[in-house]
Amino acid sequence: MKLQTAGIHHVTAFVGDAQRNVDFYAGILGLRLVKKTINFDQPEVYHLYFGDEQGNPGTIITFFPWPQGQKGKIGGGQVGITTYAVPPGSLPFWMERLAAYGVAYEKTARFSEEFLSFADFDGLQLEIVERADGPQSTWSFAGVPADKAIKGFGGAVLYSAAPAKTAAVLEGSLGMTRAGEQDGFIRFHTTGHLGNVIDMPAEPVPFGAGGTGTVHHIAWRTKDDQEQLIWRGELQQQGYHPTTVQPRQYFNAIYFRESGGILFEIATDPPGFAIDEEPGSLGEKLMLPEWYEPYRGQIERNLAPIEVRQLEVKKP
């Protein structure tokens, strides 16, 4: 049986100030902060997760805020643009909302679709597209009604230093379908309803540099631990060097760097974000893995306080 990912599980990026990160993704984009935890390797750094009401796979963007971090450069070997999907007819609402908060945007087009392209406070490149696929959001916050809210990922634009090799991974290893090529972009589809459209420039993109305002890795969905191990074995047979399984509390992960330079992760759908908090109170408390609980006081003192808050409109 050929393995096929349903699409994006999550995207993880580096940013600067944690509160500004919360203000943008919750206060402006209206996403839910579903988990407030730490970088397991650097407990002095937050790991923040934003997504739909339950933090379902295909909706989650995660951040490592590091105020002292060096500014990165978006380029080859990275996710260049993260795409969000909203219901059909919602772009005028988002044009008005972005303008009201002083977020500059422009209209772009690919494959006969219109996108609103903009950047967050750290320069991370984002876009919004209308798509009928995927369940409608049930989360409403900060003046974003559920019928206009971001549903989750529409997909991503991958910047590869070796597009032919990256395409071979997307099709041959991850089981995506090559849907077409137009205006210098190649499009791939996955089997899911969110995070299911992957675009990539057909020509190589010069390498970027990691740092704030760049994506660290993109994670692809696998249904469970058993399938993940099958995937790991197949990647080894194909000549890649996936890591051992890394427990990430809310999913398990393996990582490998594909030949175009992009760090890929394959992450399990379960167990999800409600294993240590009630669904109604996700993201309200700093959650730590059990091995860090004895150090909670010290860890909390080293983290700047953050809050989910509604922002004042900058423009009438």
UniProtKB/TrEMBL annotation:
VOC domain: residues covered: 7-131, 152-269
TM segment ranges: none
Keywords: Dioxygenase, Oxidoreductase
Any coiled-coil regions, as ranges: none
Keyword Chloroplast applies: no
A molecular function (GO) term: dioxygenase activity
Cross-referenced PROSITE patterns: VOC (PS51819)
Record InterPro entries: Extradiol_RC_dioxygenase (IPR052537), Glyas_Bleomycin-R_OHBP_Dase (IPR029068), Glyas_Fos-R_dOase_dom (IPR004360), VOC_core (IPR037523)
Gene3D superfamilies: 2,3-Dihydroxybiphenyl 1,2-Dioxygenase, domain 1
PANTHER family reported in the protein's UniProt record: RING-CLEAVING DIOXYGENASE MHQE-RELATED
Protein name: Ring-cleaving dioxygenase
Organism: Brevibacillus composti
